[in-house]
Design goal:
136 residues, five-stranded antiparallel sheet, alpha+beta, 40% strand, 9 strands, single chain, two-stranded antiparallel ribbon
């Protein structure tokens, strides 16, 4: 049974073209990667053009009272952040508590999870999140 793995990320800089997060991962199963102080010494630099807007679906729905009402839903779209990393739009500097690296560029697996949650949360809230927390 796993004790848990995860990551935390905090927004440190945002301007007209760039967003920068500092992040740190932890793995409570491995003593050398526990990171009990939640040290965030990794960096994720994202070009603002990477943030995709969700699809908006609208339809008329008949209510129990018989009246019709316009219902609007936000449908999150998939963001191809691995391609954005290859194209140089996203840069990742691995944190010191990185225990698993993925792909040709050997990027921290927890940084990829942070990116996935970041883009999903952006589409749900319609603003760039200040803080991201992941626990698996």
């Amino acid at each position: 049974m796993s004790l848990g793995i995860g990551a935390v990320a905090k927004l440190v800089l945002q301007d007209d073209t760039t967003v920068i997060y500092e992040y740190g991962g932890f793995n409570w199963n491995e003593p050398e990667y526990k990171n009990l102080e939640y040290i965030k010494d990794g960096l994720i630099t994202i070009d603002k053009s990477c943030f995709a807007e969700p699809e908006i679906h609208q339809k008329l729905k008949r209510m129990p009272s018989g009246r019709k009402r316009l219902v609007t839903k936000k449908i999150p779209v998939s963001v191809d952040f691995p391609k954005m990393i290859e194209d140089g739009l996203i840069e990742v500097q691995n944190c010191s508590h990185c225990w698993k690296k993925m792909g040709d560029k050997e990027i921290d697996a927890m940084a990829l999870k942070v990116l996935f949650k970041l883009f999903y949360q952006y589409q749900e809230e319609e603003k760039i999140p200040e803080y991201i927390s992941i626990l698996s």
